[in-house]
Amino acid sequence: TISRCVWVQGAARNPRHRPPVATHTGTSEGQVNLPACALARQLCPQGGNQEFKAATRSSAAPEPDPAPPCYLRPATPTPEPAAEMHLSENEGIEGVRFAVTGGQGFVGAALCLELIRRGALEVRSLDLRASSSWSQQLLDAGVRFFQGDVRKKEDVEKVFRNVDCVFHLASYGMSGKEMVQAGRTDEVNINGTCNVLDACHEHGVRRLVYVSTYNVVFGGKPIVNGSETLPYFPIEDHVDAYGRSKSIAEQLVLKSNGRQAKSNKGTRLYTCAIRPAAIYGPGEERHLPRILSLGKLGLASFRIGAPNVKTDWVYADNLVLALILASMGLLDDIPGRKGTPVAAGQAYFICDGSPVNTFDFIISPLFRSLGYPVPRVTLDTSVALAISRIFLFMSTLFYPWLDSKWIPQPLLLPAEVYKVGVTHYFSYLKAKEELGYVPVTSPQEGLAATISYWQERKRRELDGPTIFTWVAVIAGMLAVFSAAFLPPVGPLKWVLAIDLFVFRSVLVTRIVFVAAVAAHAGEAVYAWFLAKKVDPRNATGWFWQTFVLGFFSLRFLLKRARARA
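Below the sequence we write its predicted structure tokens.
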């Protein structure tokens, strides 16, 4: 049997050798028993440096080469008309053992808690992190933690033993510097999915719900009210490794639908894929923190795309509901229902159902509520795309060191430009008709909860001016210091000339510098004592920030003190 699969990292960085896409055409007896890596070979036929290598311990004859891929057929088969599901709230959950990869993340934690609330026998969380913001809440609820890596098959297998249903949420490469790290993105999203599929086969898991992405069909061209009949976006045309790897992984999952368990030929694995829109909600950790950090620094001063550009978002609670309904749609033991489960081998778009302009819906209201400058100048999508490619090139130059904290996040990347600057929204009609999905939280309610969360979070964190203030104050202090105490060599001659023009003499320049340092030190001490009363958690941070910036920092602390008075 094929025991493992390895994605060659060089492929991720060679755009001229991308694996062709394969269209899912349903299950057949010739497909469902293929191990995950054999399916991977169908999706990525061997050739050049872009291949899956499978380690085998079998003397069976090699499989024939797959048929040439077709880019025009639907990504998923059109199902036979099916009646809307009418199941109890806890159908397939009570008394059942679940595993959630990425269970310490934003959506994963919410899913674990909801499964516990609905009466699951046991919920296991597999995550690379030892802890997260939700760890204590998960621990109190009774979720079992397994620290491990989906790239390591042994880590996955120890979690999946005696599990009935798996939710595969673990992924990499969605935002910021991660988007540039193509090698790791492929390892986690493709190899990790191979390991999940093989572990499901090994341990007789009956249901697998995979969290995919809109990007499996979207690649920068407008889509209005799209449906699941759209073909996969051509693999070689994806602008980032995340969309490409998730597309391959989704096809692996859907082609594994109906696969027989290794130990029990009467048990089959039923799979489906959920394609969520951009996710938001209190505690979201991929999109909004990145956007808000730029807003705080004053670097998010432009809108991208025309005002009539519309995209989808999905509130976390709505996505969790869709995932649970999808798991119910994979049940094969419902009384009175025969044949293949309604969701088996299917993909579903999930959103709030209200296409919006990203800047009008979430960015501007959030910035306004937090006191950040609201983007007002519109940047054409083509211009933003050109700028983003410059940042992509700069990040690529530092590829080996992208994990280092001293490498800043790129300001903008091409996939992010497409996300906010090109219209693309989809219908959740298929999920409604087959799974019974209807959003439980409206966009207005979700946005209000998100704004409330970030306002409270801002009150708990160190606040301060934009990056332009930092640069101006530090540059000014350095200029005065160099003119006062350093010999006028090279460019320092110009600095000295400017200082003498302003202060008239070196002595006055020195007095000004010493007075400025003393003032900053006094303000820093005052800030420390004041912060001990109004923000003790960040007292040390207020001291050092005020020592560097002086009153430009102190005024933010005074504002916080007045608000709490």
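The radius of gyration is 27 Å.
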